[in-house]
Design brief:
The complex is a heterodimer of chains A (about 450) and B (about 450). Helices cover about 50% and strands about 15% of the residues of chain A. Chain A is α+β, with helices and mostly antiparallel strands. Chain B is α+β, with helices and mostly antiparallel strands and about 450 residues long. Classes of the chains: A alpha+beta (about 450), B alpha+beta (about 450). The interface between A and B is large, with 76 and 68 residues.
Amino acid sequence: MYKIILAIRYLVKRQIAYFAVLAVALYVFTVVVVMTVLTGLVTDFKQKNHSFVGDCVVGTESLVGFAYYEDFMKILERSDFVEGISPVIKSYALVSPVESEQNLGVEIMGIDVVRHSGVTGFGQTLYYRKDDVSKAFKPVYAPNLAGCVIGIDLALQRDAKGRYPYGSGPTEMALAISCFPLTAKGALAKVGGGMVNTQTFYYSDNSESGLARVDSSMVYLPFEQAQLLCGMAGPVKRTNAIHIKFKPNVGLEAGCEEVDSLWQSFGREKAGEKQAYLLKNVAVQSWKDYRRAFIAAMEKEQTMMTAMFALVGITTVFIVFVVFYMIISHKSKDIGILKSIGVSNGNIIKLFSGFAFLVGILGSAVGLFSGWLFLLKINRIEDWLFARFGFQLWDRTIYAIGDIPNQVDAKVLAVIVLSAIAACLVGALVPSWQAAKQKPVETLRVSQL
Amino acid sequence: MLKLFLWLRYLRKKKIVFLSIAAVALSVSLLIVVASLFTGFINVFEQSAVETIGDVVLAPPIKFAKYPLFIERLEQTSAVSAATATLSAQGLLHLPEGNVRMVSIWGIEPGRRAKVMGFKRSLLKQKESPDEASFKVSGFPEDIGGFVGVGVVAAPDEKTDEYDLEAVEKMVGQSVVLTTGTVIENSKQEGTGGAGGRFKRKIVPFRIADIVFTGVYYVDKIFIYLPIEEVQKTLYPNEDGQVADQIQIKLAGDVEADLAKAQIRGVWQVFAAEQLGWGPYLIRETSIKTAKQMQSQYVAELRKQMGVLLLIIVVVSVSVVVLIFCIFYMIVSIKQRDIAIIKSCGTASSSVALIFVGFGACVGIIGSGIGAALGYVITKNINTIEEWIRIIFGLKLWKSSVYMFSKIPSEVNWVWALVFVLLAIAAAAIGTLIPAIVAARTRPVEILRYE
């Protein structure tokens, strides 16, 4: 009990301890704000990637694709852990608005829009056909023509607030889309003068996935047409990937392992087939592994920022050390008295550790509260800064970021608070140890009183 | 003299002061490293733009003919050292083994281009050759030759982020197929229900004459270069004379960019009106910008991000002021007798205060000196440090695919370094203000009483 009383008493009476509280609060405030924003961005980016890909992908990086995918889809459909599957054609194409001299290199994705929307969040990225995704490839101005969905950044430019100037319907526009059709061996399927396949599609909708690279380079086409364009619709049809969604109760790793196991058996079963060599390049990946190259970059920035804060946080440890060193040097008589009545060295250390804990808790509480308050208003503050000074944290015409993320994550907060308390305990460790080592016979000498 | 003596004594006797020196050094070094990396990145980014497109780019709203005459006129002005034309398009490139890439095509004049920018230095095979850069492919004199970016034909290693240049050089001489296209006829198509026009795809088979490795990921990944005449023949077969859609210009010596732009615009106005017969609208809409101006929006964003990051570090570094305050408060509390003795000898209160403020400034000078040295060492060796992190932890922090360049810029920004050093000294002095006032207000009669 005396430990708690003394710890509270030191905190209240020794005003220098407030500086330690202030330092901890300042540090916690900064870390809470920065890490919340950063974590929010990373989480949002991951969620968008998950929504774009689905849970699992069976696919190859080669544009040649792989054969017998329909047989494997049947196996997946029969399994009890798969909720939906969607075959996807992926390639590069040249897009030219008809009657213009523009030529634009884009990525194309051939999808069965209903299947794909059941596996990924594609349906929700549409603007005009969000409520009826089956019509995504039917232009409202000419429903009988083959439509294409264009990545939003290819069609429209964001304004300063990150909004797109959508019209009441897609503009009537014909696009000539050309691809190199490839044979199963990777050679050009067509020889002679016209080595490319070209087909005209009509702009039917936009897709806003929130992923800048996707939205600025992707054109979505109906699966069968894309298959034809890429030369994959021969007697043995090919695709580039199968996207899979697991049932809600299936874990990501377990689901991917199941798919991998099915794929391995399927590969053995098809070993004797003519185009079985294409199956060797196919990998089964979870959405996280599939988008690793993009996600890892953001995660690394988060790691670097965390390392930087850990480095700067050393100063807070120093402050706690100095404050405790001062308090203990002023309280040698108290310590002498405590030890003379039988308090052990361990209890002296516990007393000052408790005090450090209090400093950590109080500093963290102040920092957390002010950080939370700041985050609550951060978008309003940015709006005000933009209206008054034209300042934005991110230029929304460049970055595909909406509001500044301000949802505090309990896990992140817990880690920050625990780190702050740990820093206080580490800072107080040496002074506490020195206090415990003091000898009452020296501190309570008449000459010292 | 007394002050110096006391400073040295306190420094020697009060080891805790070293904590404040360490904290100052830590903050200063971190600030210098962050500012240097950001400004280094911005400088390299701007320089890479100059290396890729020259000092100034003239881009009319539509392609134009007779560009050799315009270049000749430009080079007669005092502001322009050299100029070269480009004709651009987009295309798909088919490489062996089913590898298809989307590419940006630049029709260029290799010899002239080497005069405008350091283009030849980027050619893997020809950079050491004394001859002019050329599209000729040895053994295939009749074939069209072209340059391709290193990222078009290969990808950097996942772990080291380096290209296998030996394997890449083996691509030289290989035949590839490019497709691009243009509208050859504007007419309404029947039965389509919409606007029509006959878009003709063009196929250009060519041999890789050399590989371009600029070190700028984006440039290396998407650009291929063909003779400007071939691109024109493909895109605009019916066009008379030589056409271009951009002129890239190298400015002479130390000419001011604005002055040079004014001269270039003057030459362009006369040329476009006289030779092309263009009206005022097209002439006015012609963009004449420096490479830096073309990157200005992105650079402004980078500078803003740097500002925000520095602000965060500065806010956190305020705790250094608190630390110095605490340490000096402690020293003043412990050394009250010393202070009282000094004051009893007739030292003025302001002089006593100055002892501590000066000592604080000394801490700032020593700390920021160490911090600056540390910042310099870290920045200069940042690539080595990054490599060691990769080897020890398997974590590749810097990837050209994310940060554009293959090497981390490692130039120390001395202007920012000086600002941080001065700020650190000021912050250290501010941290000692209250303890110094407390020391100055010490009353010897109370401290030196016998009891």
